[in-house]
Amino acid sequence: MFCPRCGQKLEAAPPTVCGACGYALFVNPRPTGSLIVHESGRFLALKRAAEPQAGLWETPGGFCDGWEDPAAAAVREGREELGVEVTLGDFVGMYVGSYDYQGERLPVLDCFFLATLDGADVTLDPSESSDMAWFDLDKPPSLAFETMDAAVRDAARRLGV
């Protein structure tokens, strides 16, 4: 690893300080905005079309853009992945997890919100999802990421399911 400010080789992996210029380098989690779209004790899951974890079920969501609030990212991701507007509900929680990207394991801070569909038909983005299904909140399938498993369990408790 090299210092992003001066290019000097770093003596240790982050967190560390560059010996040449004093720049402090950290590995901070990347925030996400995610949805648990629910209705009548069920939640909407999407089958991932792309790696990592292609073919596994997930909840809609994705990474926040720079300076984007996780709630705004969750609504944007719902629109992009489901092709409909969602009504954002209560905040479920934040969960620290990991995401494999470009040969790195990145720390993530997944922020989950309850949501409902605004009545329109869902139109999946085929680059994101190959299928969708409704599952009982109290009997979810294994999801693509551990943070999703934890958030669905917490959402079920919050909703009294």
UniProtKB/TrEMBL annotation:
Pfam families cross-referenced by the UniProt entry: NUDIX
Gene Ontology molecular function terms on file: hydrolase activity
Nudix hydrolase domain: residues covered: 27-158
The keyword Hydrolase appears for this protein: yes
PROSITE patterns from the UniProt entry: NUDIX, NUDIX_BOX
Keywords carried by this UniProt record: Hydrolase
Family annotation (PANTHER family): NUDIX HYDROLASE 23 (PTHR43222), NUDIX HYDROLASE 23, CHLOROPLASTIC (PTHR43222:SF2)
The name this protein goes by in its record: Nudix hydrolase domain-containing protein
Lineage, uppermost ranks: Bacteria, Bacillati, Actinomycetota, Actinomycetes, Micromonosporales
